[in-house]
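Notes from the 1:1 (GR / supervisor)

We went over the backlog. Supervisor wanted to see one worked example end to end before approving the batch request, so GR pasted a single chain during the call. The sequence is below; no edits were made to it. Supervisor asked that the structure be written out right there so they could see what the output format looks like.
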Amino acid sequence: MSHPILSTTLLATTLLCASLIPATAVTYVRGNDGDPETLDQHKTSTIAESNILRDLYEGLVIYNTAAEVIPGVATAWETNADGTVYTFTLRDDAKWSNGDPVTASDFVYSLNRIMDPATGAKYANILYPIRGAEALNKGEGGTLGVTAIDDHTLEITLERPTPYFLELLTHQTGLPMHPASVDEFGTDFVQPGNMVTNGAFTLSSFTPNDKVVLQKNPMFHSADTVAFDTVEYVPFEDRANCARRFEAGEVLSCSDIAAEQIKDLRNRLGDQVRVAPYLGVYYYGVNSAHEPFDDPRIRQALSMAIDREFIADEIWSGTMLPAYSWVPPGIGNYVDERPQLDYATLPMLDREDAAIALLAEAGYGPDAPLPVEISYNNGENHKNTATAIASMWEPLGVDVSFNVRDASAHYAMLRDEKAHDVARAGWIGDYSDPQNFLFLNRADNPGFNYGNYSNPDYDALLDTAAETVDLDARAVILAEAETMFLRDVPQIPILFYSSMSLVSPRLTGWDDNIQNVHPSRFLSITD
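Structure output shown during the call:
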């Protein structure tokens, strides 16, 4: 970076104090999970996308470095007596990157757009707690319970009290949009040069398989606190490649690590390797809408034969926990004794025998092999997990083949085509409530129901829980729904996540947290 000419005295003072004053880096190069499939906040669904959108936009509320909800565009909010009406006061100095003021009507526009069936937002149902949202999204008409009282006052009315609503608004589905640019460019509003944002950064360029480049937004209300002029998101589906670039000093953080490298990296890099609890489940979706996977005996047999302890310890180097339930431990608003798969405590040999018998009962075995294609997205961790599971299924008479895609193609297939037998997937909680995991398996949630589960009784329990104000009673109902799901196991829980990151000691402000969120606006570089 070039500097203006300094006087001799000033230059001497600068040199004398150089070791004491933090040096702000112009560019922060950060490794990301993969390329974004889209940067339309209403059509995104991956962690790689949410990382970028968190830098581009600011919602009513945001996460700080500890994943605590703090003010964003809204400086304050209040609720009515029964918690069904939220009134947000918007900051006076919030601006779009083109200089337009951010107003309450921008949130009204955005929330109505995501509920418009024509938008095709797979994540729209996350906002169904808002009054009228579900009916509007399902094409039944009506009015959304979101009103701009004036430019700086937004009122949101809910169908019922929702204890996690504020945390829900930290998600990208609640981000505002710049109506004029969306109306002018249509779906191309996400292109560099067209995109107008209100966050700490703007979109400069997007080169697939290379990088997404963001530039500091001078119109951002707290621009003077943002340390970086440029942030480059580099996609690394090959986690080992990110580690190599990290050690070479070419990237300052990696969003994930290949599990087989953990021990070696810890030996060489020490506390630059960051492993922390993470609210998420790693699982295999079984396509229960297709024969023969519509038979629950087959799904249970496949689940029983998976040695989760081996996968957690040997493949993921102890960085993940074995999962015998769907809802992760440590989640809020839930029962103390969480449901588990019936065979959670059985020895592995007994489980394998039971799985062989169950699969034979369904008509399959070594003499009548069950063909299963495992689909997964690129990555050594996923490859090694799939290979291990194929080996565990072999004694049952399961003939495994593999279908490997890049992350964006893999998840597009899961959401839209569902052309899979068994497919690797993962879900990270958007907020700390079991509903955020259980809702994935609703029949009316095709965008994320990778197991193609269709059970009216399960859906009815979730509907009842949504109407239940008492949190303890609601938790019991949700546990009943999870028990039913674990009986049918259309999606096989395998592991509970830990976040695994590489973080340079020069990068300050990176705090480990259960949501693994690290907005660039709160980070900086020091010598």
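Supervisor's comment: The first strand starts at residue 27 and ends at 32.
Batch request approved.
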